[in-house]
Amino acid sequence: MAHKLNKPIAGYHLLMILSQVDGEFPVAEGEVIIRYLDENFPIHVNLDDEFDTLASLSKDKYMTHFITAMNDFYEDSTPEERDHFLDFAVKLVKADDKITREENEYLTALFNAWVPEYEE
User: Fold this and answer.
1) Distance between CA atoms of 36 and 88, rounded to whole angstroms?
2) What pLDDT, on a 0 to 100 scale, did the predictor assign at position 1?
3) CA gap 26, 70 in Å, rounded
4) What distance in Å separates the CA atoms of residue 39 and residue 29, rounded to the nearest whole number?
5) Domain ranges in the chain?
6) Which helix (H) or strand (E) holds 86?
7) Gap between the Cα atoms of 45 and 21, Å rounded
8) pTM of the full predicted structure?
């Protein structure tokens, strides 16, 4: 990824990767992403380029891209905005009533980076 992502786009990338790391994409996870989009993009925005970028990532590149998006979001956000986003991330991984090892790994990386007092 050559350019810095703005905060809403970085959040979209984070949620999409979280939804894909376990190899499944249940409807309930998609609904969380739609709520995020509704809240963060009050006007219709074309996310085709973002979707193409994410779709072209191989699974072994997910964590690198996730960390980049995580850092881009962090740079442009307040602690309150990060807390609010973490709520979306937790709702997403819990949406299908199971948290996989992969989802836990990515969610833990997010908490470790954004919540200084968080330790596993």
Assistant:
1) 7
2) 45
3) 23
4) 16
5) 9-114
6) helix 79-94
7) 25
8) 0.90
